[in-house]
């Protein structure tokens, strides 16, 4: 699938707080924990537990979320298909969309039971 400017804008305007409970719910159903997810978020963005909660409380959009993030230098190693999009083929003009898919891919790997060392690309 191809990313469009409309899709990029739609994702940019979504709030992290609106999706966060769904992330946690699915993880817990699959035997993973909120703490593991926070570890993944911290690896990708540099956000600790307090910062994650602050972003949830202020209802930060994904655009704001990733503007404030210090993306891990190994993030480019996150590859594959998520939500029908091949991450490494998302054009640079849709960098925000790619970053959101990075988070989705790591989350999906966690939910599917992948080992943390592999998720964190160590």
Automatic annotation (TrEMBL):
One Pfam family, short name: DUF2200
Lineage, broadest ranks: Bacteria, Pseudomonadati, Bacteroidota, Flavobacteriia, Flavobacteriales
Organism whose genome encodes this protein: Litoribaculum gwangyangense
InterPro entries recorded: SP1917_dom_sf (IPR023204), UCP033199 (IPR014580)
Record protein name field: DUF2200 domain-containing protein
Gene3D superfamilies membership: uncharacterized protein sp1917 domain (1.10.8.290)
């Amino acid at each position: 699938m191809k990313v469009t400017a409309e899709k990029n804008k739609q994702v940019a305007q979504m709030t992290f707080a609106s999706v966060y409970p769904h992330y946690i719910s699915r993880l817990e159903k699959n035997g993973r924990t909120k703490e593991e997810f926070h570890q993944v978020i911290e690896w990708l963005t540099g956000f600790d537990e307090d910062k994650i909660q602050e972003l949830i409380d202020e209802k930060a959009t994904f655009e704001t979320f990733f503007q404030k993030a210090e993306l891990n230098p190994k993030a480019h190693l996150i590859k594959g298909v998520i939500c029908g999009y091949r991450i490494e083929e998302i054009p640079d003009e849709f960098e925000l969309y790619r970053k959101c898919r990075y988070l989705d891919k790591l989350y999906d790997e966690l939910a599917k039971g992948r080992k943390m060392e592999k998720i964190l690309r160590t």
